[in-house]
Amino acid sequence: MNLQQNWDLTESERRKYAERWARAMREDVDRILAFQRAYDAAGKRLFPNERLIDVDRLPPKTSRKDVLRPADRLLFFSRPDCPSCDLLLGKLLNRVEEIAGIDIYLSGIEPGDDAAVRDWASAHEIDPTWVRNRRITLNHDAGALEKLTKGKGKVPYVLCRLGDDLSPIRASDL
Question: Is the whole-model pTM more than 0.70?
């Protein structure tokens, strides 16, 4: 016996079960809303002069210490056709004036194919003035990410360089 045959329903059976399901869901919503109204009324009756959440009792917001300093230079590892790389690049470009600069390393482009690198930079609206002033450098990866992360880094990847020190930066910290 074919198991699929047990699940074949006629149009009228599908309609009948769908209506039963719709009624059951409607009754469930009615029960949930009735309980919520009773809960709200009990809260007002038992605690008439109090807010449900007293925001004055919450701990104060602490300002997040910025991980980037003006002397930092970022090494950003990316590749063409990488949406998450593009999102992170946008964050970095928004902060390019706050730091010493960004060295962009592209993988997935043939070594020496500088035209492909220029096309990528143009498509990502990297200001040529930044490149001329070395605020941004455009580089072929050529194994740099693998060497610097001992094979553990995957694009997109950001390192912060301050002097001779390199440290990874999480995208959420930018």
Answer: no
